[in-house]
Specification:
single chain, 510 residues, alpha+beta, Ribosomal Protein S5, domain 2, Alpha-Beta Plaits, 2 domains, nine-stranded mixed β-sheet, four-stranded antiparallel β-sheet, 19% strand, lipid metabolism, ATP binding, kinase
């Protein structure tokens, strides 16, 4: 009866800061880095005395963090109460569990509620696993004396144990922190848990989804329920209503995104202790969710690369706070900068969409131009345009580069005005160097920027040369690529698949 669901991490390519306010759009790419949630019954059968109990047992296990927490779930109030815990609690998973079960109560008739009650009395055994790409293993690689290459990352066992930073710079103990890579682990984790539970409890059926269903051209009601519950759980767990692009991409995959109005979550935010959770979830399920999402993915023969410079992380909430203070103190200047950024984002989106259409119209010509340009620096790309159809492709490639340079300029300008390092000087040097390499279309800082990571979009087979160059610049190229899929139901425990793959590789080598 085990259900395994997975949800992807994300890269916000355009729309940093702007996506916080409607109607500004952001382009968000989902990735091959996925979070998994495994849900199964804790007990094989219901004990006779269990019928009188008003509580169900819930076990949450995170093997990578060596954590296990036992809860009692009130079947009346649908609230979790920790009984024993090896470490600190996980509010994202706790809210995901409570809200998913409340969604079942809010939507089921009496007969289904009876079945749900029996299912819950068998307990819930929940395991969460995140791909290595969500976490920084740079220190471990350097400690082992290995080179800063994707091959070194690939040599780590799947779902490697996560290292905690247990002390701050002056040696005082503080709450342990995990070194992350900025792919949105909490959103992917929350979405995976919600999806697995909703499927396990029979609220949704995620068995067979096509690409059309991810993007609303066919019935996507099951995904929409996953989205509403995951957004609600994630926002309440983090204590604020964010833009939601990370959860949306975790559910639906790569997309052009415009945020929902925060008011849709007012009932969840304002709910008091006396408000039944089923009423809260019923309200958010019936609310008018007005977010917009449009199918988007990189054009063919383009590769997303992410690099970890190793210069420390950045606090997104504090950077967002600084930008908001700047907007209040200088509304006229900030409005003009945002207008320019919005224009740049729209221009980049237009050029990439046009390249997708040109590839559909004549793939052979498109492939020829992309492969030729992958061997050259951008200033030499026009040399490969010997006829109008080729010139049209090169024009769009150069237009996309120009738009990206404009976006970077205004992001730096905004950072300087707000007093924060949105594109720090060290990142500027790295990005300029990257964009001057053969076959590189774009380079930038994803999301809110700072010191977390850099991204590049490369043409053809040029990505290998970029990762080598990054390694020489002390930048670790991550094992992350675009994967446009959203939340998915998996066949089995991902650890079993990894073990099978490893055994197969060993057999092939021998």
């Amino acid at each position: 009866m085990a259900v395994v669901a997975s949800a992807p991490g994300k890269v916000l390519m355009t729309g940093g800061y702007l996506v916080l306010e409607r109607p500004n759009a952001g382009i968000v790419l989902s990735t091959n880095a996925r979070f998994y949630a495994i849900v199964k019954p804790l007990y094989e059968e219901i004990k006779p005395e269990s019928w009188a109990w008003a509580w169900a047992d819930v076990k949450l296990t995170s093997p990578q963090m060596a954590r296990e927490t036992m809860y009692k779930l009130s079947l009346k109030h649908l609230k979790l109460q920790a009984v024993s815990s090896s470490e600190s609690r996980n509010p994202f998973v706790e809210h995901a569990v409570e809200y998913a079960i409340a969604a079942a109560h809010a939507t089921f008739d009496k007969d289904k509620k009876d079945i749900l009650h029996k299912l819950l009395l068998r307990g819930l055994d929940i395991t969460i696993l995140g791909c290595n790409e969500f976490y920084s293993y740079r220190n471990q690689i350097e400690a082992r004396g290995l080179p800063l290459t994707p091959e070194s990352l690939a040599s780590l066992p799947p779902f490697t144990s996560i290292t905690f930073n247990a002390k701050d710079s002056i040696g005082e103990n503080r709450k342990p922190e995990v070194a992350k890579t900025g792919l949105g682990s909490s959103a992917a984790m929350t979405t995976a848990v919600v999806a697995a539970l909703l499927h396990y409890l029979g609220v949704v059926n995620l068995s067979s989804f096509t690409e059309d269903q991810y993007h609303g051209r066919k019935d996507a009601s099951n995904l929409d329920i996953v989205h509403v519950i995951a957004q609600t759980a994630h926002c309440i767990a983090q204590g604020k209503v964010g833009s939601g692009f990370d959860v949306s991409s975790a559910v639906y995959g790569s997309q052009r995104y415009v945020r929902f109005s925060p008011e849709v979550l007012s009932s969840a935010q304002n709910a008091g202790m006396a408000t039944p959770l089923t009423e809260v979830i019923d309200d958010v399920l019936k609310a008018k969710w007005d977010h917009e999402r449009t199918k988007f993915s990189l054009p063919p023969l383009m590769t997303l690369l992410l690099g970890e410079p190793g210069s420390g992380g950045s606090s997104t909430p504090s950077m967002v706070g600084a930008v908001k203070r700047w907007q209040k103190s200088d509304p006229q200047s900030s409005l003009e900068t945002w207008r320019k950024l919005s224009e740049g984002n729209s221009a980049l989106e237009m050029h990439l969409n046009t390249l997708c259409k040109l590839a559909e119209r004549n793939y052979n010509v498109y492939e020829c131009v992309i492969n030729a340009c992958s061997l050259l620096t951008a200033e030499k790309w026009p040399e490969r345009a010997n006829e109008p159809s080729q010139a049209e492709i090169v024009k769009e490639l150069l237009g996309a580069r120009e738009a990206m340079l404009g976006i970077r300029y205004y992001m730096r300008k905004m950072g300087e005005a707000a007093g924060i390092p949105i594109e720090p000087e060290s990142q500027t040097h790295l990005l300029d160097t990257t964009m001057s390499m053969e076959g590189v279309l774009l380079a930038g800082v994803p999301g809110a920027g700072g010191f977390d990571a850099v991204f590049a979009v490369t043409l053809g087979a040029s990505s290998k040369n970029v990762t080598k160059a990054w390694s020489s610049l002390n930048v670790l190229a991550m094992l992350v690529t675009e994967d446009p899929r959203g939340v998915s139901l998996e066949d089995n425990d991902p650890r079993a698949k990894e073990i099978t793959a490893a055994v197969s590789a060993i057999q092939l080598q021998s």
